[in-house]
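Input (structure):
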């Protein structure tokens, strides 16, 4: 690595009177594919105080371009001028090729380190797309935008000289091997002859070939073709420009620029109808050199006094239509969103080509997604699909997953979603229970024909999402039937089933939860109103099924490489690279996945400063995981919604609220996991445990007494698919109201905070005490050598299964760890009676969340093992 050019370390002022500002440095890009564990040192100038103005240079300049502007603004503003990594006085790494996404990430890192959350941007050349890419990620933080000669996505209009500069041989010769590109800047980039000392100031950081690597890198990163790695990022940036519709914009343009000519100005100005445009007739590319007084006065007048900070949404929807939730469930809501925002990215599918660390992005906007849904609807009509019929969906998350699911709903039929990680036998059982008319799946899913041949023979149609269909199945491309005429509408009632999602089966046989149109409409209102999702946002769902909901709100979904049957196999470095490249505001995932990402960030120093909201659901979230996520996503608010497939969500709590609220113990001494208060529209009760087919009246437990959790509301399902006995057991009818038994135990405090104590099926009842899984495991999970523990019942009494942090574990080490755990348990009345310990290398868990432990399997396994058991006298041992 080549470090920054040498400067006077005593004065920290490298260029005396020409650039008389103190040099400062920040480490950026830590933990990323291009930054490694150390990151890179970014040079920046930070002058003055007041409203923040960030100035971004282009190629092949550096912060020196803004020297006169800094001096003019610093009396009234805080002016921050970074040098992009590889440029100016920043590090000049020789083994890295940065893309635009990397550089936007560097800016996010710098602003996070400086604690900047409101600012204006002044941009020139490449600074324009980099600054705009930053702005669309955090539109509520942007006060004003100033553009000097630049381009956002107008690469097709760039002249041939720029294209030649990007060619492999001539381009490298001009930009890297020689100083010709720099000399063109200091000659053709100005109308007025540039003084020699100023010319030397521009050239000084780039005197050597090593110092000019970034110049060549910038030119290589111009996306002249749709297949270029940076093209999807630029397309997404342009799609999200409506989020800046209310932001004041000023464009100051040198009209004699041979590269960024008036045709490009017209295109850039058209993207900002609200912009004030200043034409500087006698100026070229370096407007601040040709017309410094006019340019600085225009910027100074535009920035004006400190703007009043208004309370605005993080990403305001472009139109009112985009913010409404349709009365027709998911399908009609997505149609409304696509009409309002056809240009916004709906799906970004990410792949990492073999032997390359650079991701490939395939993007589809909402307008194109709607057209694909239409084409699939026509194909499904020809295949004979009728309203109310069910279709099994085993399709990889991505554009076709959404388009096919919505096309089925558009025909009034019911898509059925089954977790592929539950195992072949369970999947086949769910399919048989669904009695489908159609099957749409990836090639591997069609291997189920070997287990359920008679079921496949009974289908009206089957489709393979691949090139080579098995006998009797049609290809996906054959199902897509584009037509000028829209599909014939199918009427849908509020009470009609819209989709079926099977539970994971972690506590028994999987059940098909019926979602009606009304239920989905109310859940969309929660996602929008209480979760804060807004049209135009981008989400990276680590639980891909949530993209069905967010797409209906006009929120784009980014699908990274993730095996739905083995989600914990995700590669954290890839997830972080994608998030930093594409700048998603939200991400929804299980605590296990976020714990893995957070731990990677802790080890490497990587951060995700662009994230604003992180949702963790599917299992209890430990304080350790919350702390890891906070460190990895310093600008994000973390939420831990509690719910189930049958009731999504029930409560929600932010990490900040959980930190502020002092935990309250149950009357019997247990410490449950706080999961927040009931959301608006959901009634929540803790009642005396129910048995069999319960009837009203339900008896409420006193405050802080552990009981069974029941919920009711429009977001709660009322039945299971073709399982009347399960519906009767799980649903309690109280007049027009239906109470759903969550199958969980917990207690409420005086403020209405719910404390989760584990599944009812996992309760172990002994003669002198009832043991609940979560409070028991919370006691033992504090041990640093323990990854997780599980309360199990063996021989009618409580025991503890232990998954050590390191495996294998020698017998002597197991004995020592068991003794330490026994000492911890003996010191707490909740766990004092637990004396048997079993060590397991890796708990059986559900594939969807990778956190729900199959305790019945653990219990059966434990009966074949020899426990490490301590006599009752061992209770006197102290830690």
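Output (sequence):
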């Amino acid at each position: 690595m080549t470090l920054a050019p040498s400067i006077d370390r005593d004065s920290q002022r490298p260029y005396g009177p020409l650039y008389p500002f103190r040099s400062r440095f920040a480490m950026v890009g830590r933990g990323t594919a291009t930054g490694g564990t150390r990151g890179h040192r970014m040079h920046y100038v930070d002058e003055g105080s007041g409203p923040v103005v960030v100035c971004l240079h282009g190629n092949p300049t550096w912060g020196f371009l803004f020297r006169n502007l800094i001096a003019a603004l610093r009396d009234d503003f805080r002016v921050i001028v970074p040098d992009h990594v590889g440029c100016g006085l920043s590090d000049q790494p020789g083994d890295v090729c940065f893309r635009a996404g990397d550089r936007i990430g560097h800016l996010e890192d710098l602003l996070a380190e400086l604690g900047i959350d409101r600012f204006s941007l002044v941009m020139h050349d490449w600074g324009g797309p980099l600054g705009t890419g930053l702005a669309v990620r955090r539109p509520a933080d942007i006060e004003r935008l100033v553009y000097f000669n630049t381009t956002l996505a107008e690469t097709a209009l760039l002249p041939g000289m720029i294209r030649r500069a990007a060619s492999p041989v001539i381009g490298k010769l001009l930009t890297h091997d020689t100083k010709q590109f720099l000399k063109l800047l200091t000659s053709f980039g100005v109308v007025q002859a540039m003084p020699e000392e100023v010319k030397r100031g521009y050239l000084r950081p780039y005197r050597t070939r090593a110092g000019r690597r970034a110049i060549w890198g910038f030119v290589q990163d111009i996306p002249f073709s749709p297949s270029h790695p940076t093209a999807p990022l630029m397309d997404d940036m342009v799609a999200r420009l409506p989020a800046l519709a209310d932001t004041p914009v000023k464009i100051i343009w040198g009209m004699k620029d041979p590269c960024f000519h008036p045709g490009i100005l017209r295109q850039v100005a058209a993207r900002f109808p609200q912009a004030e445009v200043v034409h500087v007739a006698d100026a070229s590319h370096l407007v601040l050199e040709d017309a410094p007084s006019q340019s600085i006065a225009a910027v100074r007048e535009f920035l004006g006094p400190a703007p009043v900070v208004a309370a605005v949404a993080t990403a305001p929807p472009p139109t009112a239509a985009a913010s409404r939730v349709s009365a027709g469930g998911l399908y009609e809501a997505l149609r409304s969103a696509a009409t309002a925002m056809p240009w916004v990215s709906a799906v970004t599918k990410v792949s990492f080509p073999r032997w390359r660390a650079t991701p490939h992005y395939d993007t589809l906007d909402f307008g194109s997604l709607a057209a694909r849904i239409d084409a699939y609807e026509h194909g499904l009509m020809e295949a004979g699909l009728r309203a109310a019929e069910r279709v099994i969906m085993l399709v990889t998350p991505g554009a076709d997953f959404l388009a096919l699911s919505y096309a089925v709903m558009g025909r009034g039929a019911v898509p059925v979603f089954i977790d592929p990680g539950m195992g072949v036998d369970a999947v086949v059982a769910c399919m048989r229970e669904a009695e489908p008319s159609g099957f749409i799946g990836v090639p591997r899913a069609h291997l189920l024909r070997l287990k359920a041949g008679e079921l496949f023979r009974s289908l009206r149609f089957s489709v393979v999402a691949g090139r080579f269909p098995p006998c009797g199945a049609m290809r996906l491309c054959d199902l897509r039937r584009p037509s000028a005429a829209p599909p014939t509408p199918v009427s849908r009632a509020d009470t009609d089933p819209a989709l079926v999602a099977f539970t994971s089966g972690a506590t028994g046989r999987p059940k098909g939860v019926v979602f009606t149109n009304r239920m989905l409409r109310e859940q969309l209102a929660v996602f929008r109103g209480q979760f804060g999702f807004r049209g135009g946002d981008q989400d990276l769902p680590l639980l891909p099924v949530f993209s069905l909901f967010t797409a209906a709100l006009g929120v784009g979904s980014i699908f990274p490489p993730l095996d739905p049957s083995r989600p914990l196999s995700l590669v954290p470095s890839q997830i972080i690279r994608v998030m930093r490249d594409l700048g998603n505001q939200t991400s929804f995932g299980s605590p296990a996945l976020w714990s893995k990402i957070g731990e990677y960030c802790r080890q490497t120093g990587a951060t995700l400063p662009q994230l604003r909201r992180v949702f963790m659901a599917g299992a209890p979230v430990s304080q350790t995981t919350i702390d890891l996520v906070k460190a990895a996503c310093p600008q994000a608010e973390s939420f831990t919604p509690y719910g189930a497939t049958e009731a999504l969500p029930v409560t929600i709590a932010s990490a900040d609220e959980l930190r502020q609220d002092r935990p309250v113990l149950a009357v019997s001494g247990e410490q449950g996991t706080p999961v927040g208060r009931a959301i608006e529209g959901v009634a929540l009760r803790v009642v005396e445990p129910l048995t069999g087919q319960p009837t009203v009246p339900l008896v409420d437990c006193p405050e802080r007494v552990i009981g069974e959790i029941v919920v009711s509301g429009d977001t709660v399902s009322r039945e299971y698919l073709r399982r009347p006995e399960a519906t009767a057991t799980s649903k309690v009818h109280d007049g027009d109201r239906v109470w759903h038994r969550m199958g969980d135990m917990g207690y409420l405090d005086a403020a209405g905070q719910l404390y989760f104590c584990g599944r009812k099926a996992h309760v172990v009842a002994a003669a002198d005490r009832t043991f609940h899984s979560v409070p028991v495991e919370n006691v033992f999970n504090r041990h640093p050598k323990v990854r997780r523990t599980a309360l199990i019942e063996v021989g009618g009494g409580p025991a503890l299964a232990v998954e050590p942090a390191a495996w294998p574990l020698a017998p002597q080490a197991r004995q020592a760890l068991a003794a330490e755990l026994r000492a911890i348990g003996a010191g707490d009345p909740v766990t004092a009676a637990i004396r048997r310990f079993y060590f397991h290398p890796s708990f059986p868990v559900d594939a969807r969340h990778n956190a729900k432990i199959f305790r019945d399997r653990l219990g059966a396994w434990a009966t074949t093992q020899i426990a490490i058991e301590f006599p009752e006298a061992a209770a006197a041992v102290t830690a």
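Notes: The radius of gyration is 30 Å. The longest helix spans residues 366-383.
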